[in-house]
Amino acid sequence: MKRLLAVGFGGMVGSLLRAGVYAIVPSSMGLWTVNVFGSLLIGWIAARFSYKSAEFRLFLSTGLIGSFTTFSAFSADWFRLLETSFWQGTVFAVSMTAASIMAAASGLAIGRRRGVQ
User: Fold this and answer.
1) What are the backbone angles phi and psi of residue 25, rounded to the nearest 5°?
2) Is 27 left (phi over 0), alpha (psi -120 to 50) or beta?
3) How far apart are CA 19 and CA 11, in angstroms?
4) One-character DSSP codes across the chain
5) Nearest alpha-carbon partner for 44 in 115, 101, 103
6) How many other C-beta atoms are found inside a 10 Å radius of the C-beta of residue 117?
7) What angle do CA 99, 32, 98 make, to 5 degrees?
8) What b/e sequence results for 75-103 when a residue is b if at least 16 CB atoms lie within 10 Å of its CB, and e otherwise?
9) How far apart are CA 117 and CA 115, in angstroms?
10) pLDDT tens digits, one per residue of 20-73
11) Is the separation of the CB atoms in 103 and 39 below 8 Å?
12) pLDDT at site 5
């Protein structure tokens, strides 16, 4: 039950943070911001908090970052772009996926650096 509550509370916080970013950053740039920054954070969290309790890690990763980032909005934007231009949709999908993977790898590397507390 504690794990379920941790995920739920993290999800609430992450959703509110995403809504805040969308209110500040217009259109698809808000989506880019949450997905790429969220990917950086998930890598960092994986490296820095591996020793913490399962509930705390679930709160941060599955709850907070899982609801902060959004694959469903990415998919919706991708299909919307594909309807207007195959190339624009393809560039959007490939570039966001690549940027998110690089951000996650960077977050992991930053989190693993010694001497950073």
Assistant:
1) -105, 120
2) left
3) 12
4) -HHHHHHHHHHHHHHHHHHHHHHHS-HHHHHHHHHHHHHHHHHHHHHHSTTS-HHHHHIIIIIIIHHHS-HHHHHHHHHHHHHH-HHHHHHHHHHHHHHHHHHHHHHHHHHH-TT--
5) 103
6) 4
7) 15
8) eebbeebeeeeeeebeebbeebeeebeeb
9) 6
10) 999 999 877 888 899 999 999 999 999 999 888 989 999 999 999 999 998 888
11) yes
12) 92
Residue 114 pLDDT: 66
- pTM of full prediction above 0.90: no
Distance, in Å, from the CA atom of 30 to the CA atom of 13, rounded to the nearest integer, reads 17
Amino acid at 110: I
Cα angle 112, 44, 99 (rounded to 5 degrees) comes to 115
